[in-house]
Write a structure and sequence with these properties.
With about 325 residues, the protein is α+β, with helices and mostly antiparallel strands. It is about 25% helix and about 25% strand. Bound molecules: flavin-adenine dinucleotide and uridine-diphosphate-2(N-acetylglucosaminyl) butyric acid (EPU).
């Protein structure tokens, strides 16, 4: 292994924040991970950089995951099992499964980033979380110096959460996911749980959508609502949607009619952070070069030339505004390096 030195990371994060890696290696084969010397203790595993806030330079080794490959590993009466390398682009992978005639991931179309990062925060959108189609993953454990497997239960998935985040491994660089397997049931049922999706299909007069119709509808909704990082740098939703006790949601709704509320299976209620931010006056507002997007208040955007410190300043101002108006704490979704 001979890592490159002093590499500019700004093209590798969708917020386009500045920062340099002291050492940088592109990982195209799982075997490369075993060759990394024990002395490289400060590591960061980088995928597509679409859920990342760079604070500045990184003094350690950045491992940029670029392992490719996708294949059907198994098929039984109930399901297809599809494996993909960690470096595969998530959206391209989803489109490929649909083209093969293996539906199930269509609701997660157009989410940026890589396959390897998908389990880290259990990506979700339009009524589906990846854990619902997840089977297992393979990772290199740097401490143990061996490959390890995790099945769905072991990953302890939650809303934008997993074992990898709970243990802090997403920041310590202790584990590098090299591939993941998804289980796609053959008994496919259209997932139209998300109201916006059902509306989009109705407006296109599609009564019995195929998986590809759903993918197309989601791509259309997302392109309308979310900024393209290539044009307006962003990291998607910047905050989690807060989960509160039902009494808190009731009290807030009484004081603020129109408050969107989504009851969860565990009894808690999910609030819409975008709504709270808009009501707190931050939709389309900026502080220096960083603001909240004018069409979706939950998306923080870099209007040009921002640093990690600028992002933190706007983040704190938005959190303070929401705290003051609603007494609700917003926690950031991206990873801060
Ligand atoms: P990175 O940003 O590179 O890394 C994220 C974290 O994962 C880091 O901690 C990193 O160390 C770790 N990591 C990455 N790869 C590996 C690996 N192989 N092994 C171990 N650790 C790894 N997210 C959603 O859930 N739903 C959405 O609808 C959604 N929409 C978005 C829309 C836009 C426009 C953008 C910019 C982002 C959106 N996101 C969404 C967030 C983002 O796309 C996801 O979090 C995605 O999974 C991040 O993938 P990445 O490869 O870019 O990860
Ligand atoms: N809303 C507003 N104003 C806004 C934005 C949203 O009032 O500026 C309201 C909407 O009217 C709606 C509610 O908030 O009533 C929810 O909005 P939306 O459907 O746009 O979804 P979201 O909660 O803002 C979440 C995810 C997205 C995911 C979409 C679709 C989180 C943190 N975000 O956004 O994920 O794509 O639902 O499922 O859970 C991401 O994680 O990066 C991400 C983009």
């Amino acid at each position: 292994m001979s890592p490159a030195r002093n590499i500019d990371l700004s093209p590798f994060n969708t917020l386009a924040l500045p920062g340099r890696a002291a050492r940088y290696e592109r990982i195209t084969a799982a075997g490369q991970l075993a060759e990394i010397p024990q002395t490289e203790t400060r590591r960061f595993i980088l995928g597509g950089g679409s859920n990342l806030v760079l604070s500045g330079d990184f003094a350690g080794l950045v491992l940029h995951m670029a392992i490719l490959g996708k294949r059907l590993v198994k098929e039984d009466a109930e399901a297809w099992y599809i494996e993909a390398g960690a470096g595969e682009n998530w959206h391209d992978f989803v489109q490929w499964t649909l083209a093969q005639g293996w539906p199930g991931l269509e609701n997660l179309s157009l989410i940026p980033g890589t396959v390897g990062a998908a389990p880290i925060q259990n990506i979700g959108a339009y009524g589906l979380e990846v854990c619902e189609c997840f089977h297992s993953l393979q990772a290199w454990n740097f401490q143990r110096g061996e490959f390890v497997s995790f099945d769905r239960e072991a990953c302890r998935f939650g809303y934008r959460d997993s074992l990898f985040k709970q243990q802090g491994w997403h920041l310590s660089g202790r584990l590098a996911i090299v591939s993941a397997v998804f289980r796609l049931p053959k008994q496919w049922v259209a997932n139209l749980r998300y109201a916006d999706l059902a509306q989009e299909l109705a407006s296109c007069e599609i009564a019995t959508p195929t998986a590809r119709d759903i993918a197309a509808a989601i791509v259309a909704i997302r392109q309308r609502k979310l900024p393209d990082p290539a044009v307006t740098p962003n990291a998607g939703s910047f905050f989690h949607n807060p989960l509160v006790e039902p009494q808190v949601a009731d009290a807030l709704a009484a004081a603020h009619p129109g408050l969107p509320r989504y009851p969860q299976p565990d009894g808690r209620v999910k609030l819409a952070a975008g709504w709270l931010i808009e009501q707190a006056g931050w939709k389309g507002k900026a502080l220096g070069p960083v603001g909240m997007y004018e069409k979706q208040a939950l998306v923080l955007v870099n209007h040009g030339g921002a640093s990690g410190a600028d992002v933190r300043r706007t983040m704190a101002a938005v959190q303070a505004a929401v705290r003051e108006k609603f007494a609700v704490e917003l926690s950031p979704e991206p990873i801060f390096l």
